[in-house]
Specification:
The complex is a heterodimer of chains A (222) and B (219). Chain A has 222 residues and is an all-alpha fold. Chain A has one domain: MetI-like (MetI-like fold). Chain A has 8 helices and no strands. In chain A, helix 5 runs antiparallel to helix 6. Chain A is flat, with a radius of gyration of 21 Å. Chain B has 219 residues and is mostly helical. The chains are: A mainly alpha (222), B mainly alpha (219). At the A-B interface, helix 2, helix 3, helix 6, helix 7 and helix 8 of A face helix 2, helix 3, helix 6 and helix 8 of B.
């Protein structure tokens, strides 16, 4: 094996920059995904079918089709209908819709985990539906919602590598670009894998060491 | 804008797309079968008394669960080329998908095996069964009830992510869709039809697994 003198320090910095883009992309997708998920998740628990059905359809379709196809449709098909947007927006939009469906399902499960007696008690105390949701249901549901949502964020970091296929330069695309010039595929994809590993493993350690402890404590503490 | 939708132009290519779908299903089924078996043994190793077995299994799981399938495929297909090892696209995709799903199923099996009450294991051993017999006849059947739904979910998820095999030129559904797009220029129609094909498969599998869970005898 040749030692990789071909790869300059600038190339390594380029990879790190790609990792930064991946983080930024995931944070944006997570932010908008949680907003979408909140709407869809609450709609999923609605008793009115007109509200519940579109939300269920949305979640079922997104979770039943490949993320790659969703990205292709947003990136290649929307411009056909006159909707042009920069690559970053296509990537962020695709990942946000994707996140929204998964987080929506988590939120729905969290809301349903709150005992119906809690809602009834809130009502009998004279709370209006908004107060009931804000002060009684949501605080209890959040304990169930936060751990799996964080788990999804870890999955999202890996899944975000798919936006490299529509040409958006994040970590995977950055390593691919350097490979094209240096012909060192193993070294560079391994470096990309190590960076992904550091991100995901770090997040999962945080999850195990801090998040779960905190949430299991709050479950028994009240 | 002047884009009119013509689904009819895609229809002549439907057999080609179905051929791609068949390959998508095939690589997923092969990877799932081998990967699940690997996951079972890796879970046993991770729960064993041997430190080396535990460490090896846990390292395998952490490495493959914390890196993207896409990068794993690139490493196997393009990366090994750096050492003069050239693997064909389909085997490369299957190797990557098998190793990937093996790591995820390890965690599923671990949780399932640990969920079975320890008294069941002790009961089996007390009756004079060896550990492998206890595992095979007492623990695994009970664990299977718990892990069936997550195993099906993992298989569906692997099927959806098999689309990334198109990037290493495996002629599966997504790859065929890109080809049909390049000859017909009906981008929207091709991708909608392709998405529907993927959806039909995952929907069918989730309905079948629900039916199976509902009809199988209770404990």
């Amino acid at each position: 094996m040749q030692i990789d003198t071909m790869i300059h320090i600038g190339d390594w910095l380029f990879l790190l920059e790609g990792a930064g883009v991946t983080i930024a992309l995931c944070l944006q997708a997570m932010f908008f995904g949680i907003l979408i998920g909140l709407i869809v998740g609450v709609a999923r628990t609605a008793k009115t079918r007109v509200i519940e059905l579109p939300a269920t359809a949305y979640i079922t379709i997104i979770r039943g089709t490949p993320l790659l196809m969703q990205l292709f449709i947003i990136y290649y098909c929307l411009p056909l209908f006159g909707i042009n947007m920069p690559k970053f927006l296509s990537a962020a939009l695709g990942l946000s819709f994707y996140t929204g469906a998964y987080v929506g399902e988590i939120i729905k499960a969290g809301l349903q985990s709150v005992d119906v007696g809690q809602r009834e008690a809130a009502r009998s105390l004279g709370m209006v539906p908004w107060q009931e949701f804000r002060y009684v249901v949501l605080p209890q549901a959040l304990r169930v919602i936060i751990p799996p949502t964080f788990g999804f964020l870890i999955a999202l970091v890996k899944d975000s590598s798919l936006v490299s296929i529509i040409g958006y330069v994040e970590l995977t695309r950055a390593s691919k670009l350097v490979v094209a010039r240096t012909f060192r595929p193993f070294t560079l994809y391994l470096a990309a894998a190590v960076l992904y590993f550091v991100l995901c493993y770090g997040l999962s350690r945080f999850d195990v060491k801090y998040l779960r402890k905190k949430f299991s404590a709050s479950l028994t503490g009240t | 804008m002047g884009y009119t939708i013509h689904f009819t132009e895609v229809f002549p290519y439907l057999p080609l797309l179905l051929k791609g779908l068949l390959l998508s299903v095939a690589i997923t089924v092969v990877s799932t079968l081998i990967g699940t078996l690997a996951g079972l043994f890796s879970a046993l190793a991770s729960l064993s008394h041997y430190l080396i077995a535990r460490k090896t299994a846990n390292t395998y799981v952490e490495i493959f669960r914390n890196t993207p399938l896409l990068v794993q495929m690139y490493l196997i297909y393009f990366g090994l080329g750096q050492f003069g090892v050239q693997i064909n696209p389909i085997p490369a995709a299957i190797i990557a998908m098998t190793l990937n799903t093996g790591a995820y199923t390890t965690v599923i099996f671990q949780a399932g095996i640990q969920a079975v009450d320890v008294g069941q294991k002790e009961g089996g051993l007390v009756l004079g069964m060896t550990y492998p017999q206890t595992f095979r006849h007492v623990i695994l059947p009970q664990a299977f009830r718990i892990i069936f739904p997550p195993l099906v979910n993992q298989a569906i998820s692997l099927f959806l992510f098999s689309a990334v095999a198109s990037t290493i030129t495996v002629p599966e559904l997504t790859h065929q869709a890109m080809f049909v797009d390049s000859v017909t220029w009906r981008t929207f129609e091709v991708f909608i039809v392709t998405t529907c094909l993927y959806f039909a498969c995952t929907f069918l599998v989730s309905i079948l697994s629900d039916l199976y869970e509902r009809t199988r005898p209770a404990r």
